[in-house]
Amino acid sequence: MERKKPELRRSVTPWGSFSWGYSDVGADIFVGLGLVLGAAAGASNVAFLFAGIVYVCIGLAYTELAATYPVAGGGQYFVLRGLGDIFGFIAGWAVLLDFTIDISLFTWTCVDYLSQLAPGLSSSVHPWMHFIVCALLIVGLCGLNVIGIRESTAFNGVVSALDICSETAILTLGFLFAFDPHLLVHTMQVSWPSSDMFMKGISLAIVSFVGLESISQAAQETQRPASIIPRTSIALILTILIFALSYSNLALGMHTWHAIPHDAHGHAQMLWQWLGNDDNNGKAVALLAAQIPYFGALAAFYVPVLGAILLLISSNSGVFGSSRIAYAMSSGGLLPSIFQKVHAKFRTPVVSLVTFSAVALLELIFAAIPTLDRGAAQIYAHWFNGEGGLDFLADLYAFGAATSYSFVFIALVALRLFDPLSPRKFKIPFNIPVTVRGERAHFPLVAVVGFVGIFAILLFTLKTHIIGRIAGPSWLLLGIVIYLVYRWQHKLPLFASKKRNWRKEQVDILRNAGELELMDEYLANLKASDARKVATAETPA
Amino acid sequence: MIGLRFVLAVLLIAMGIVVFVRVASVGLTPAILPGLILGAAIVALGVHRMSLIIRAWRSVR
Predict the structure, then answer these.
(1) Looking at beta carbons, which residues of chain A come within 8 Å of B42?
(2) Searching chain B, which residue's CA lies closest to the CA of residue A46?
(3) In angstroms, how far is CA A161 from the centroid of its own chain?
(4) Do B38 and A182 lie within an 8 Å CB cutoff?
C-alpha cells in the first residue's frame, strides 16, 4: 500500500500568519537602522524610502505567488517553477546564504542589544566574550532545532504584539514630543553623503526588509492561504515600511532628551552620527528609544531585552529556514540527498541543520576576526577598507537578498505569462493584457519596477561592498559547482530541467491547502483551455 | 474587540494625517518626500485595517 507523504498541519490563524512574518522581518530594523545611518548619513531616510519602495514590490510579488502556490519552498520554489531547475537552484542557494547570514548577523546584534544592559558583552570592550556568547547561541539554537524544539506560533504572537506596541509607543511619542521637521530638513541638507556612501546606504537599507520568505513558509501552514495571506501580507508590508521610514526620519530630525556624548576626538556629534558609529550601530534602536523624553527612561531598560528576544527568534528562523530550504532543494533533485537525512530519534533534518549552522559559525568567525586579532584587523584594513564584522555580515545579507529577489521578479513574470490558468485570488495591480500561446495573460508592470530597483541594489552592493563583491559571487560559484557535479553524477540534465507534471502538482497544492473552490476553478480553466486547443487544431487552415 | 480595532484604525489614519501635515508645513523641498510618504503609508495602513473591519462587520450582520 502506498504511504501518504506527511504534510504540515494547517493551523496558523491570520494573526499567527502576520506574527510569523513580523517576528522575522520586524527584527530587521534593529539591525539595519545603525548600519544605514552610518553609511547614508543625512540621506538615510531617502535610502530607506528607495529600499522600501522596492520592498513593497517584493512583498506584493511574494503575496501573489504565495497565495497562488501556497508551498513552503518560497522564492526557490517560485523560481524553479517559473524559470527551471538551475535558476531555482541559484535562487535557493542565495536564499540559503541569507538564512545562514541571518543566523550569525541576528545573533551578533542580539548580543549587541544585550550589551546595552550588560556592558561586559560589548564587542568593542570585550570582543572575545561577545564572540563566545554569539557562538554558544548558534550552537544552542542548532541543538534545539535538532531536538525539534521551535518557538511556538503563540510565543511569536506575544513577542510580535509586545514589539508592535513598543515601537508604536516609541515612534508616536517621538513624533509628538521630540520630532522637528525643520531639524530633519536641516540635517538632510548639511549631512548629505557622497554618492558612493548613498549607494552603500541603499544596499544596506534592504537589510531592513529581508525575510519575506516567511510569507510563503506561513502559507504552507495557514488555513485557506489564498484568502488569508494577502490580508496579512499587506498589513505586514505597510507596518514594516512605516517603522523603517519612521525610525530613519526620527533619527535625523529629533531633539534628544539627553546630550549626545562627544566622539573619540572630542567633537560634538549629531544623533545620527552617534547611532551610526561602530560602537553603537548594533543597538541603534535601543539608544534612539532611550532619547525619547520621559518614556526613554523606561525604554532604556526594556527595548534592549525585547529587541534581543526578537532578534533571537529571527536567528532561530534562520536555523530552521535554512534546513527546510536545503531539505526542499534536496527533495527536488537540486542538492545531494544527504540533506534529506533525518535524525533517527528526533525526526529532524539533522545534516542540513548542522551543515548550515556550521556555515553560520564560519561566517561569524570571519566577521569577528578583525576585533579578536590585530594581525587580522590589519589584513582587513589593507584589503577590505577596514570593514568591520557587522559590515561583513550585512554585505553578504544584502547580496543574497538582492540576488534571490531579482530572480523572483523574473519568475513572477514567467509564471504570469506561462501559467495563466492557475487562479490568482490576489493579483498585483497595474498589468498589461497580453496573449501567450493562445491564452490571455497579464504582464505585471510592478514586477518590472521591482526588478529594476532590486537589480540596482545588487549593483550598488557589488560596487560599494568590498567583501560582499568577493564573498557573495564566490558563494554562488561554489553552489553552482556542487549543483553541476551532483547532477552529472546522478545523470540528471545539467542545464535543462527535470520533467515535472505541474498541472497535477497544482491540483494537489490547492487540494492540500483546502482551497477547493480554486481547485475547481483551476480544473475548469484547464478543461476550457484543452477544449480551445482541440478546436484550434481541428479548424482547417 | 472589533470596536477597539476600529478606534485604532481611526487613530492610525489621524496620526498619518498629522505626520503628513507637519512635514508638509516645512515648505516645498525634496527633503520632505520621505516624510510625506511615511504619512501616506500610515494612512494607507489605517484604511486597509478599516476596510477589513468593515468587511468583518458586514459578514457578522
Answers:
(1) 242
(2) B34
(3) 20
(4) no
pLDDT at residue A12 in the model: 64
Nearest residue on chain A to B25, judged by CA atoms?
A181
Instruction: Mutate one of B21, B38, B54 to test the A interface: name it (highest A CB count within 10 A).
Output: B38
DSSP 8-state secondary structure symbol assigned to residue A26:
T
DSSP-H helix ranges across A26-71: 28-40, 44-68
The pLDDT value given to residue A316: 86
A189–B41 C-beta distance less than 8 A: no
**Chain A partners within 8 Å of B15 (Cβ):** 172, 175
Sequence ranges of the domains in chain B: 2-60
Distance from C-alpha of A109 to C-alpha of A99, rounded to nearest angstrom = 15
| The pLDDT value given to residue A149 | 67
3-state secondary structure A79-115: HHHHHCHHHHHHHHHHHHHHHHHHHHHHHHHHHHHHH
pLDDT of A377-403, one tens digit each? Answer: 888 777 776 666 778 888 888 899 999
A188 interfacial to chain B (CB closer than 8 Å): yes
Chain B residues whose beta carbon lies within 8 Å of the beta carbon of residue A242: 38, 41-42, 45
Given this model, what pLDDT does residue A418 score? 93
Q: What is the C-alpha separation between A422 and A440, in angstroms, rounded?
A: 12
Residues of chain B with C-beta less than 8 angstroms from the C-beta of A188 = 31
Amino acid at A353: L
Distant-in-sequence, close-in-space partners of A279: CB < 8 Å, separation ≥ 6: A122, A124
What is the per-residue pLDDT for A11? 56
A242, A246, A252: which to substitute to probe chain B, counting the most B Cβ within 10 Å? A242
Chain B interface mutation, best of A46, A170, A249, A426, highest count of B Cβ atoms under 10 Å: A249
Strand extents, DSSP E, A357-491? 431-436, 439-444
Give the pLDDT of residue A2.
Answer: 47
Of A48, A185, A231, the CB nearest to B52: A231
Closest-approach residue (CA) in chain B for A47: B34
Among residues A79, A77, A63, A51, which one has the least CA distance to residue A18?
Answer: A63
Is residue A210 within 8 A of residue A25, CB to CB? The reply is yes
List the single residue in B25, B49, B52 with the smallest CB-CB distance to A181. B25
Which fold is adopted by the domain A27-258+269-410+454-500? Amino acid/polyamine transporter I (1.20.1740)
Measured at the alpha carbon of residue A183, what is the angle toward residues A179 and A189, in degrees to the nearest 5?
Answer: 140
What are the tens digits of pLDDT across the range B3-53?
A: 888 898 999 999 999 999 989 988 888 888 989 999 999 999 999 989 988
In which residue ranges of chain A is pLDDT below 50? 1-2, 8
Domain boundaries of chain A, sorted by first residue: 27-258+269-410+454-500, 504-538
pLDDT confidence of residue A1: 45
